[in-house]
Design a protein that fits this description.
Elements: H1 19-33, H2 38-51, H3 76-86, E1 91-93, H4 94-103, H5 108-115, E2 123-125, H6 126-135, H7 141-152, E3 163-164, H8 165-179, H9 184-199, E4 204-205, H10 207-210
Antiparallel strand pairs: 1-2, 3-4
């Protein structure tokens, strides 16, 4: 049986004053993030909003790579969202990581392929996961480290993307260890050369330093 029609007059409808702004911010967030599954992402968005947690929202729209119109896989922008949500914890529980991954509508198979690059178990060291995730975005170790710098930096977007040299060294040595094909002498030569550059920059390093032709090859 169909429900009876109910007539309302404007005086009967109470619109919360904060609703228009909430919907406006939600719409902007959806446009920037371009989620593959809008309903799934929306549920995660409002759940995070209600808890006062970091929202699953990109800082800006990412242009599709190559000639594809859409992507359902990990991107630098989505990885940066994950970093904002999880980086306050040095060690992240795998269940929490899987949930945040799912909230961003990313394929489960891709997450598993990243986790299988190291023997994490149920507890995942976030900075190591970030490094491995950067390496799956394509390219060389240098490109992976460039992505990491752009995610970890406190510089404004489009800036130098500086990070502490100690952090860079940790990431580079870890990726080189996972790679297994880079001689220790080559690793140490690159680190020594970049350490000299870092001393000139108050202990910081930036992509242009290790992407320079003057820098010994990282891989």
């Amino acid at each position: 049986m169909p429900l009876p029609e109910v007539m309302f007059c404007p005086q009967q409808i109470d619109i919360p004053p904060e609703l228009p702004d909430i919907l406006k911010q939600f719409t902007k967030a959806a446009i920037r993030t371009q989620p593959h599954d809008v309903l799934q992402w929306s549920a995660a968005y409002f759940d995070s909003l209600s808890r006062g947690e970091s929202l699953p929202v990109k800082e800006r729209v990412e242009m599709p790579v190559a000639n594809t119109k859409t992507t359902t896989g990990l991107t630098p922008g989505l990885l940066k969202v994950l970093h904002k949500q999880l980086s306050l914890k040095i060690i992240v529980n795998e269940d929490e990581l899987e949930q945040k991954w799912k909230d961003l509508c990313l394929p489960q198979a891709q997450l598993q392929s990243i986790l299988e690059l190291d023997n994490f178990g149920r507890e995942v060291e976030w900075l190591k996961f970030l490094a491995l995730a950067c390496s799956t975005l394509g390219g060389t170790i240098s490109i992976a480290l460039k992505h990491a710098c752009e995610i970890l930096t406190e510089d404004p977007e489009g800036g130098a993307a500086r990070i502490p040299f100690e952090t860079f060294t940790f990431l580079y040595k870890y990726l080189a260890q996972v790679d297994r094909d880079i001689p220790d002498t080559q690793i140490e030569e690159a680190i020594l050369a970049l350490q000299t550059e870092a001393k000139k920059q108050d202990g910081m390093i930036q992509p242009r330093n290790f992407l320079s032709a003057l820098c010994p090859p990282l891989s």
